[in-house]
Amino acid sequence: MRRRREDEKVKRRWEDEEKKTMKKKKTR
C-alpha cells in the first residue's frame, strides 16, 4: 500500500511536469 501511494505521487508529479512542458511548448 505504501508503495502504491508513492507511485501515485510520482505519477501526479510527472503529469504536472508534462503540463508545464506543454505550456512552455505552446508559448514557444
Q: What is this structure, in a nutshell?
A:
The protein is an all-alpha fold and 28 residues long.
User: Roughly how much helix do the residues carry, as a percent range?
Assistant: over 70%
Cα gyration radius (Å): 12 Å
**Poorly predicted ranges:** none
The coarse overall form would be rod-shaped
Q: How many alpha or pi helices?
A: 1
Give the beta-strand count.
0
Instruction: Estimate what percentage of residues fall within beta strands.
Output: under 5%
- Span between termini: 41 Å
Order of helices and strands: H
Most strands sheet: none
Mean pLDDT: 81
Structural class: mainly alpha
Region (Disordered): 1-28
Biased composition (Basic and acidic residues): 1-20
Please give a structural write-up.
With about 30 residues, the protein is mainly α. Helix content is about 95%, strand content about 0%. It is rod-shaped and about 40 Å long. The model has no long low-confidence stretch (mean pLDDT about 80).
What is the topological layout?
Blueprint: H1 2-27
Task: Give me some keywords for this one.
28 residues, 93% helix
